[in-house]
Automatic annotation (TrEMBL):
Its main location: membrane. SUPFAM superfamilies: Multidrug resistance efflux transporter EmrE. Keywords: Membrane, Transmembrane, Transmembrane helix. It comes from the Eukaryota. The chain crosses the membrane at residues 162-183, 203-222, 242-261, 267-291, 303-324, 330-348. One of its GO terms (cellular component) is membrane. This is EamA domain-containing protein. It is a multi-pass membrane protein.
């Protein structure tokens, strides 16, 4: 009976849309205005929240990732059960037998996808414990420029116009930010307004995040080269399972059971920590991830990616409000401004030229994780 009611309601909704195209237009405008903004806002919170749990409260990153992904796995599974019979697209975009490639090829693609997705998740989480949250977001914001370079290397696709000019400006902005956080800033300007000094930990964190972004884009390339391999939910759950398995092995190898006991004890030790953990797992790694899939299905990856640069100011605000790690000085503000404006101009230009497919950042964590062509069954697969 419940299934029949849901199906009847869906049919009524379709008829209303047919009879009232203005309402359909207003709904589309709402998705455009709010959907992509809210997704990017949530993923922009990821660096500050994960750094808060790891650095401020000493929770091991691999333990945190394992537990978070376990909760995400259950949330995605529950979401799939609840929505299975209520969506006209509820076939979950499962590839048909005719679409499936040969067994060996499919196994290779799934293996590559799983390894790259797992690498993305682990590096993205651990990098936040080594450097400032907005430094992580700045590296993440370079994805729209780095993606076409990797596609050119592996898929021989043509490069967008002005990509090297935009890449140069972005690197210049990154150099300014790094310089403004280093002791050289004080040697040149003789200022003591900053309380943060660049160390090797920052270099480690940024390097990890850069490899995380590379894993993200290589995973997209793997999915782009072979459509119809898996449904979005299957891709997410493969990532969850492999990430849990790998993180548990790493954490047991480096800290053993004592690390798990300490981290789990801290994880549920106070209300702010529990709230941050629930926001990370349910709000970002589960909620934002599933919502992002819906937004990309409705708008397409190009339109969704047009607000990628919003994650940087969100990370800056989170770094200040949650971690008391504000932007240090005027020169650092200039570097951040250059990067954000450059990426926003680049994405807007690509969209106007009809080349916006590669501009989305997906996340998922952010978690960052969307595929490419709108007709592909893999376009909705998200990477934290």
């Amino acid at each position: 009976m419940a299934q029949q009611i849901c199906q009847a309601g869906r049919q009524v909704e379709i008829q209303i849309r047919k009879c009232n195209p203005e309402a359909e237009g207003r709904a589309g405008a709402s998705w455009e205005a709010y959907g992509k903004r809210d997704c990017h806002f949530l993923w922009g919170c990821f660096p500050a929240i994960s750094r808060f749990l790891q650095v401020r409260h000493g929770i091991d990153g691999n333990v945190l990732l394992s537990v978070s992904k376990a909760v995400s796995f259950l949330a995605v599974a529950a979401s799939g059960v609840l929505t299975k019979n209520t969506d006209s697209d509820a076939e979950d975009r499962r590839p048909s037998k005719k679409q499936l490639p040969a067994g060996d090829k499919r196994f290779l693609i799934l293996t590559l996808w799983g390894l790259l997705a797992t690498g993305r998740s682990i590096l993205n989480m651990l990098s936040c414990s080594y450097t400032l949250a907005y430094n992580i977001a700045l590296v993440e914001s370079l994805t729209p420029v780095l993606a076409p370079l990797l596609e050119r290397l592996f898929l021989k696709t043509p490069l967008p116009k002005n990509i090297f000019a935009m890449l140069t400006l972005s690197i210049f902005g990154c150099i300014i930010v790094a310089f403004s956080q280093s002791p050289y800033y004080y040697a040149v300007f003789g200022s003591t307004e900053s309380t943060y000094n660049w160390t090797m930990d920052d270099m480690v964190g940024l390097t990890m995040q850069l490899f995380s972004v590379l894993c993200l884009n290589l995973a997209r390339i793997v999915m782009k080269t072979s459509e119809g391999i898996m449904s979005p939910t299957e891709g997410i759950q493969i990532q969850n399972v492999l990430t849990i398995f790998t993180s548990v092995i790493i954490s047991m190898s480096t800290g053993g059971g004592a690390m798990w006991t300490k981290s789990l004890g801290t994880l549920f030790s106070s209300l702010p920590v529990v709230a941050a953990f629930l926001f990370l797992t349910l709000g970002i790694l589960s909620g934002a991830l599933l919502f992002e899939i819906t937004v990309v299905r409705h708008l397409g990856p190009g339109a969704y990616g047009s607000l990628t640069s919003i994650r940087v100011p969100v990370a800056v605000l989170g770094s200040y409000a949650i971690l008391s790690e504000p932007v240090q000085n005027w020169l650092e503000w200039i570097g951040i401004f250059i990067i954000v404006v450059t990426m926003a101009m680049y994405v807007a230009k690509r969209r106007s030229e009809g080349g916006g497919e590669g501009d989305d950042d997906g996340d998922n964590g952010g978690d960052d994780e969307v595929g490419r062509a709108r007709t592909s069954s893999s376009q909705d697969i998200v990477l934290m």
